[in-house]
Amino acid sequence: MPADQTDPQFKFRNTVRISEADEVLADEVNKIHAVVAELQERLTLLPQPVPEDDVSRVVTVRMPGRLHEALLNEAHARKTSLNRLCLAKLASVLPAEAQMPEVRRH
């Protein structure tokens, strides 16, 4: 690949004679800087912590197979998850102050 003559390192290498070992070391340092930059970018994409009062809780419910199948069929028909359907059904019978403003996806 031809060298980019606008690259500052190209200008530096052609202005100052450096040993081949130093050039290899400089290339490795540049690779490390690129990896660090990529990792820093990935860190910004990580989900932010959820406030403690908004953390999901898990409840295990045992139910007859026919009821489970009926709920699965209804969720499929509504193009939603079983979890969202169950939350909506539970919320519909709770007092307004106990209902969640919106169901978050996890």
Structural class: mainly alpha
> pLDDT below 50 for ≥5 consecutive residues: which ranges?
none
Helical region count? Answer: 4
Tell me the major beta sheet.
none
Helical residues, percent: 55-70%
Shape: elongated
Rounded to the nearest angstrom, the radius of gyration is 29 Å
Head-to-tail CA distance between termini: 45 Å
Description:
This protein is mainly α. Helix content is 56%, strand content 0%. It has four helices and no strands. The chain has helices at 8-15, 20-45, 65-77, 82-93. Helix 3 crosses helix 4 (82-93).
Task: Put the structure in a nutshell.
This protein has 106 residues and is mostly helical.
Please supply descriptive tags for the structure shown above.
single chain; 106 residues; mainly alpha; 4 helices; 0% strand; 56% helix
Itemize the secondary structure elements and their pairings.
Layout: H1 8-15, H2 20-45, H3 65-77, H4 82-93
Helix pairs in contact: 3-4
